[in-house]
UniProtKB/TrEMBL annotation:
Subcellular location field: Cytoplasm, Cytoskeleton; Cytoplasm, Myofibril, Sarcomere, Z line
Acidic residues compositional bias, start-end: 334-347
Name used for this protein in its record: Tripartite motif-containing protein 54
Region (Disordered) location: 326-366
Amino acid sequence: MNFTVGFKPLLGDAHSMDNLEKQLICPICLEMFSKPVVILPCQHNLCRKCANDVFQASNPLWQSRGSTTVSSGGRFRCPSCRHEVVLDRHGVYGLQRNLLVENIIDIYKQESSRPLHSKAEQHLMCEEHEEEKINIYCLSCEVPTCSLCKVFGAHKDCEVAPLPTIYKRQKSELSDGIAMLVAGNDRVQAVITQMEEVCQTIEDNSRRQKQLLNQRFEALCSVLEERKAELLQALAREQEEKLQRVRGLIRQYGDHLEASSKLVESAIQSMEEPQMALYLQQAKELINKVGTMSKVELAGRPEPGYESMEQFTVSVEHVAEMLRTIDFQPGASGEEEDEEVALDGEEGSAGPEEERPDGPEGTGGH
């Protein structure tokens, strides 16, 4: 059974009333015009209070008509069309009232105060029995119907119940369903809020752990840089000691070579002396000097392999392998402070565990 046709006039009236209400809204307060309504020269309407507020805002020095001083009037712009409205010394109170709009508002309020369900019931008529109202509900077919349909029509063998009873029952069921749905929505919203808080907590915790991770790797890099500087300093020290020793030997050998060369030069000049007596006066001394010079023992040369610096080779494979095993340790948050203390201790005592390059100082036979 179709009742849509019976509802059309009511729906049309409701739509018209909505359109009418939109035309009765003040553009300032966005409420329905309140008495008295004033009509502007541009034919737009305002509440008198709203018009006075706009006028006072545009003319702050204008004095009201209750003042003893007579003002020369003022001007403001219509909020709907921006048309400039010029007022005389009476201000807004000099504008004309729109009695037609006031009457329309009164009629609208009277019509709106009537209960809508009574209008709906007047239009709910049976489709098969046009003059019969829908007043019962068929429980078997689950549709509203009229009394004649129960007595003579399609629902004569069905079980029926009074329409208000079923109306109250189904309205109560729908209300309970809505309450359950709203409660379910509240629970879902609470879960969403909780999960959003979890997301925020995850971001905060991740940010904090990233900072800790960066700090610890920076500490490791600092330890490596410090240890590298120590080893480089030891290598440079050993290099300088060996160079000083070898350069000292070079100076000794150079001095011996220079003295020997001069002695050879003197001996050659003496051998060129043609007078035997004069030669014999110098020959004995030169022979002794040459003999002595040839028997001089110079300082020993650096032993084989002295120039090698292989003893300063550093093996980092096991350390690199150990660094590659660094990984996260779940549940170790409570041990953070202990790990930091241990790390600081390693920074201060990293030297003794490494092979110190002090040993080569004794090698080389300084």
